[in-house]
Amino acid sequence: MTHHTTHNSLNWIDGELAGLERRELRRRLADRRGAQGAVVRLDGRELINFSSNDYLGLAADPRLTQAVRAALDSQGWGAGASPLISGHSDLHRQLEQRLAEFEQAEAALLFPSGFAANAGTIAALVGPGDVVFTDRKNHASLLDGCRLSRADVKVYPHGDWQQLEKLLQRDVAHSRRLIVTDSLFSMDGDVAPLAQLVEVSERHDAMLMIDEAHATGVFGQSGRGVAESQAVEARIPVRMGTLSKALGSHGGYVVGECRLIDWLVNRARPYVFSTAAPAAVAAASLAALDIVAAEPERRAALLDRAAALRRRLVDRGWNAGGSVSQIIPVLVDEAEAAVRLSASLREKGLFVPAIRPPTVPQGEACLRISLCYGHSREMVERLVEGLGEPGNNQSLERGCTTR
Ligand SMILES: *Cc1c(COP(=O)(O)O)cnc(C)c1O
Asked: How far is CA 352 from CA 134, 229, 261, 383, in A?
């Protein structure tokens, strides 16, 4: 590591980083070699990988890589311009039509990432003089969208639609009102009460936007997400998903009415001012959507296995919070305890990342198990054995916060 001896205007960073180090909050990059999957080579070490969002095991599927090769031969690599100039290819158009069909919506719009989709969409829907209501546990990209919009931001307690309704009743000063929520929460693996949120939004004439990033491809009969599984899709005007997680590809998208998509094309700044993704990325996403349609057994098996794993962990005394999905937190309170437990699993060849502030609030650290279709019974067995029981670990004896 370089050591700076001369004083310059960035010296304050040294102190900040040292502070993170002391609180065990300093993050460092690991380098993966080879493909993403159930087993990965990370910093030179082979590990059973419970850290990826490649839930359906598609990131290295030969059908995706084959589609990319074919697209490269006809379209080259870089898109070279933003979509509104000359970056939007026929493959992007095809993917948008396919996403609209898949999601049973009038239209779809592709963004360079799910993060950009959230930030751009919220800021296009509300602005100064408006208000946005956001679940306390929403993903950072939704929160950043709220901030970027310069609308008033009101945070409601996690999943608490009754509290949300009170906030809406009391609120009279704003013109446009937007409610935003994850459908499947990325750290807790629990789901939002979408049916109630729909009712509340309709009663109070507020727009409702949901983020299906972790549910796309996994939840619902056809893999459209939590809104499909709760049969409320048609009543949610703004739905966002990602191609970067279960679909094993890259990019974010929004679906809804044509006028919504038209507005975003004109006003979502991360869309307007960012280069389109390479057309070959769209080709990979199209191949992934084919697999999601043709192989429903992947998502069904994944959710069954996740339920079985949760039962076993709870039987052993672990607290898996409100998880109902392939995302299973093991709650351990303090950041240091989470880091220690994660390190002990790593010694046993298992990669389960510790999640700590600022990703989660202070005192709510956990290990986040991300179960994927490619995990064999034997791999899951090693995980359960590796975790042992909470009582065996002194640092965990204080128990967990109730949420
Ligand atoms: C990962 C994630 C995003 C961002 O999607 P990317 O395609 O990875 O940029 C948005 N929302 C939630 C809830 C996420 O977990």
From this structure: 29, 28, 38, 9
Which residue, 28, 27, 30, 63, is CA-closest to 44?
A: 30
Q: What is the pLDDT at residue 2?
A: 55
Known catalytic residue at 7: no
Helix axes 377-387, 296-315, angle to 10 degrees: 20
> For residues 359 and 304, is the Cβ–Cβ distance under 8 A?
no
| DSSP assigned state of 249 | S
Whole-number Å distance between alpha carbons of 182 and 329: 16
How many angstroms separate the CA atoms of 119 and 139, rounded?
A: 11
Residue 216 is classified by DSSP as: T
The whole model's pTM is what?
Answer: 0.94
Is 204 one of the catalytic residues? Answer: no
pLDDT at residue 175 in the model: 86
**Cα of 114 to ligand 1 centre, how many Å?**
5
Ligand 1: does its nearest atom lie under 6 Å from the Cβ of 244?
A: yes
Q: In order of start, what are the domains of the chain with their CATH numbers?
A: 30-57+296-397 (3.90.1150.10), 62-294 (3.40.640.10)
Q: How many CA atoms lie within 13 A of 204 on its CB side?
A: 28
User: With a cut of 50, which residues of the chain have pLDDT below it?
Assistant: 394-403
